[in-house]
Amino acid sequence: MEVQPEGDAQPAIRPTQLIFHSIAAPWTGRRTYEYWRDSTNLESHFFVEFGGDVFQYIGTQTRADANMYANKRADGTGAVSVETASNLKHTDPWTSSQISALIKLGVWMHKHHGIPLRICRSANDPGFGTHRMFPQWSQGGTACPGDARQRQFREIVFPGIVKAAGGKPVPEPSGGAVTIDGKKYGPGSSGDHITRMGRALVRAGCGKYKQGPGPKWTDADTESFKAWQRKLGDAPQYVDGIPGPKQLARLLKEFGDARTHKVARGETLSAIARKYGTTWRTLATLNGIKNPDQITPGQTLRLP
Fold first, then answer.
1. Cβ–Cβ < 8 Å for 272, 263
2. Quick one: 167 exposed, middle or buried, by C-beta within 10 A (0-12, 13-18, 19+)?
3. Residue 201 CB coordination number (10 Å)
4. Any residues with CB less than 8 A from the CB of 57 and at least 6 apart, and which?
């Protein structure tokens, strides 16, 4: 069902990426086609219904606008997009039929267009991804395709593509930022949420900080989150130092709300302050400590 005039009017691309989306609507392929034909220019190349039927609206060597600037690179490369039916908030997982169809599409893109069997490491890096992975693939960041489908992509869909294509997975190294609940994590990100994450990593025993943590993401955040991923027992290809939604949620649930620190033997107030991204003066004032050199092992300190 080619969407016109987009099919003829859009510029050509050389596809190097395949990006999965959720449309946030329980539509059929025909309903989606009619919407994009009549109401908007944000069309996608493919659509997959709940039952696994696949519809194509734009040729894979023609730009579709669903991936924003992923299709406007100066070198002429672009991303092929796959929208999928979902509930209205894109919180539901892909059905088994949808997963099967996505794997088949991924294998076809690998064999027909040479998409490498790896998860994209940056917004421009060839490979497979989901809409939420890089803000350049949206208008500054998105939760699409939802937490459940993001996890399915990493644990089922992408490994399924690799297996069906007869290849071996390429570990995803650190380097690409992600957006979770509207907040950016990874290189280039900053804010109170990075400080909060870092403090939770310290409480989890995974802190690799010499200064900080937070509010600006540093290599120490990457190494600290790698330690947390290893602590969770994640497979090596997912130990990349970049938070996944489930990994981050568990960290903050288990260690994000702690507001005290028990003094260990040999610790100083200054060293404790550095761990939590604050100053010894702040800790002293908060805990009524008149002499910062007089803290004792076992003493519980309140944290800001």
1. yes
2. middle
3. 25
4. 1, 2, 3, 7, 32, 33, 36, 43, 44, 45, 46, 47, 64
* DSSP assignment of the chain: ---TTHHHHSPB-EEEEEEE---SS---HHHHHHHHHHT-S---SEEE-TT--EEE-S-TTB--GGGGGGG--TTSEEEEEEEE---TTS-SPPPHHHHHHHHHHHHHHHHHH---SBB-SSTTSSEEEEGGG-GGGTTS---TT-HHHHHHIIIIIHHHHHHHTT--PBP--S---EEETTEEESTT-BSHHHHHHHHHHHHTT----SS---SB--HHHHHHHHHHHHHHT--GGG-SSS--HHHHHHHHHHHSS--EEEPPTT--HHHHHHHTTS-HHHHHHHHT-S-TT---TT-EEE--
Between CA 181 and CA 147 the distance in angstroms is: 9
Q: Are 136 and 69 in contact (CB under 8 A)?
A: yes
**CA–CA dist 90, 256 (Å, integer):** 26
The band of 176, judged by pLDDT with boundaries at 50, 70 and 90, is low
Q: What is the pLDDT of residues 206-242, one digit of tens each?
A: 999 988 788 999 989 989 999 999 898 876 656 778 8
